[in-house]
UniProtKB/TrEMBL annotation:
<feature type="transmembrane region" description="Helical">
    <location>
        <begin position="303"/>
        <end position="324"/>
    </location>
</feature>
<feature type="transmembrane region" description="Helical">
    <location>
        <begin position="244"/>
        <end position="265"/>
    </location>
</feature>
<feature type="transmembrane region" description="Helical">
    <location>
        <begin position="38"/>
        <end position="59"/>
    </location>
</feature>
<feature type="transmembrane region" description="Helical">
    <location>
        <begin position="6"/>
        <end position="26"/>
    </location>
</feature>
<dbReference type="GO" id="GO:0042773">
    <property type="term" value="P:ATP synthesis coupled electron transport"/>
</dbReference>
<feature type="transmembrane region" description="Helical">
    <location>
        <begin position="277"/>
        <end position="296"/>
    </location>
</feature>
<feature type="domain" description="NADH:quinone oxidoreductase/Mrp antiporter transmembrane">
    <location>
        <begin position="125"/>
        <end position="424"/>
    </location>
</feature>
<keyword id="KW-0813">Transport</keyword>
<keyword id="KW-0830">Ubiquinone</keyword>
<dbReference type="InterPro" id="IPR010096">
    <property type="entry name" value="NADH-Q_OxRdtase_suN/2"/>
</dbReference>
<dbReference type="GO" id="GO:0008137">
    <property type="term" value="F:NADH dehydrogenase (ubiquinone) activity"/>
</dbReference>
<dbReference type="GO" id="GO:0012505">
    <property type="term" value="C:endomembrane system"/>
</dbReference>
<comment type="similarity">
    <text>Belongs to the complex I subunit 2 family.</text>
</comment>
<feature type="transmembrane region" description="Helical">
    <location>
        <begin position="108"/>
        <end position="126"/>
    </location>
</feature>
<dbReference type="GO" id="GO:0050136">
    <property type="term" value="F:NADH dehydrogenase (quinone) (non-electrogenic) activity"/>
</dbReference>
<keyword id="KW-0812">Transmembrane</keyword>
<dbReference type="Pfam" id="PF00361">
    <property type="entry name" value="Proton_antipo_M"/>
</dbReference>
């Protein structure tokens, strides 16, 4: 395959890479005054990456001798990643101007672009080393973003914790990669699958492959914040700037989940029975711990951190099915989850006192239905949807993964998941109760950001409303086409 064809297949990453480098130079010469232009240009670059998916990059096959695959599965994930990244760029300027005590610097959107570049490589990787390079590119940008507010000790602490624990997880993953390579002789997913499928006549070789599988999944579990590798999530979500937290809860979550699905299905598909046990444990543990851990939280960002752990558990139920329907359920779940999560964090961004300082306590939501009725209605919709209460669209997300689990014969898993979802509903409903039935707290400050953030909240609310069910034929067909690309 010639070099031009390779570049055509990797065009979204080429667009992001060139755009990121050029904007980094503009940032260096333009200084803080170039922030607005760099931010909007970064959003345009992400739009260009989406447009690039309409060509060969949307499903043209493998590039660079099988290290990278452009298919329907990666296209689905990339669209979600780029949209979530663009929203995270757009909502940042007002937060930094009003709350962080520091104007937004142009490095922020540049780091977002490089993180999106790494995530694109992650979801298209069909080689363990490509996987690792993409993951590290995403992670290095994320470490800086977590500690982006230099004057905030919580932000610095969040960045340090994320860096230390992320490095540990990367080491675990890399050790698993080395074990898999040592016992299979290849880092290519198809070669690894062939080795797993071969008759394991040598017990030592089989044991080594199983250990490699466990370490690889442990490293990936950290990236999706699945139990027992969730410990970093509440502290990092609380300490990081709120736009960065919204980013962490959306785009990287989709990338890591898509990466885990591709590794499980393509590289380790022949040993589904072995990794299914790991996934089922992680799913149930994440659902239960995410629900129970959120009950006692008083900070809304920490509560949403446990909510993200809880939702990862539900998405993993679809992966545990090990079927195309299960993978389609995972993709559908992540698409709806993006809208619910970004909408929730957009409401959190509106929580500011009369001095414009960010307020994060759940108690400050008291009586918001009387002081900011539209905002309270939107937050209630997002909470009901995250809880999976019909007729909101979040119900269909849970239905999709439970239906795939039942179809695969995993009745106990589906039953436990349905029962555990009741626990999670408690803390979502507690927020609704606080907004609608408690005595009003001091009203939130309403600034001049309403047009952009208010519009984004409205769009997210419409997506997760009953009107979202109109998208089921399109979303179902697209997610199933993406899932079948792996089988």
């Amino acid at each position: 395959m010639d070099y031009a064809t390779n570049l055509a297949l990797t065009l979204p990453e080429v667009v992001l890479g060139i755009g990121g480098v050029l904007l980094m130079m503009v940032s260096a010469w333009g200084g803080p005054g170039s922030t607005r232009a760099v931010s909007w240009t970064a959003v345009a670059v992400l739009g260009g990456a989406v447009i690039a998916l309409l060509g060969p990059a949307g499903g043209g096959g493998e590039a660079f001798d099988g290290l990278y695959r452009a298919d329907a599965f990666s296209t689905f994930a990339k669209v979600l990643i780029y949209v979530a990244t663009a929203v995270s760029i757009l909502i940042a300027p007002d937060f930094f101007r009003r709350t962080a005590g520091d104007d937004l610097r142009p490095e922020y959107p540049v780091l977002m672009l490089f993180s999106a570049l790494g995530m694109g490589m992650m979801v298209s990787a069909v080689d363990l080393l490509t996987l690792y390079v993409g993951l590290e590119m995403q992670s290095l940008a994320a470490y800086v973003l977590a500690s982006f507010v230099r004057r905030d000790l919580r932000s610095a602490e969040a960045g340090l914790k994320y860096f230390v624990l992320g490095s540990l997880a990367s080491g675990i993953l890399l050790y698993g990669v080395s074990l898999v390579y040592g016992f299979t002789g290849t880092t290519m997913f198809d070669g690894i699958a062939a080795a797993y499928a071969a008759d394991a006549a040598e017990p030592a070789r089989s044991l080594g492959l199983v250990f490699g599988l466990v370490f690889v999944f442990a490293g990936l579990a950290f990236k999706i914040a699945a139990v027992p590798f969730h410990m970093w999530t509440p502290d990092v979500y609380q300490g990081a700037p709120t736009p960065v937290t919204a980013f962490f809860a959306s785009a990287p979550k989709v990338a890591a989940m898509a990466l885990a699905v591709r590794v499980a299905v393509e590289a380790m598909g022949p040993v589904t029975d072995q990794w299914r046990q790991i996934v089922i444990f992680a799913a149930l543990a994440s659902i239960i711990l995410g629900a129970v851990g959120a009950i006692g939280q008083s900070n809304v960002k920490r509560l949403l951190a446990y909510s993200s752990i809880n939702n990862v558990g539900f998405a993993l139920i679809g992966l545990a099915a090990g079927t195309a329907e299960g993978v389609a359920g995972v993709l559908t779940y992540m698409a709806i989850y993006i809208a619910m999560t970004l909408g929730s964090f957009l409401v959190v961004l509106q929580m500011r006192d009369v001095n414009g300082i960010q307020v994060e306590s759940i108690a400050s939501l008291s009586g918001m239905s009387r002081t900011r009725p539209a905002l309270a209605a939107a937050m209630a919709m997002f909470m009901f949807s995250l809880a999976g209460i019909p007729p909101l669209f979040g119900f269909y997300a849970k239905f999709a993964v439970f239906d795939a689990a039942v179809a695969a014969g995993l009745f106990p898993l589906a039953a436990i998941g349905v029962a555990a979802s009741v626990i999670g509903a408690y803390y979502y409903l507690r927020i609704v109760k606080t907004m609608y039935f408690d005595e009003p707290a001091p009203a939130f400050h309403k600034g001049d950001e309403g047009a952009l953030q208010g519009g984004l909240i409205a769009v997210a609310a419409v997506v997760i409303s009953p009107l979202g069910y109109l998208a089921i034929p399109f979303l179902g067909a697209w997610s199933m086409a993406a899932a079948r690309a792996l089988f």
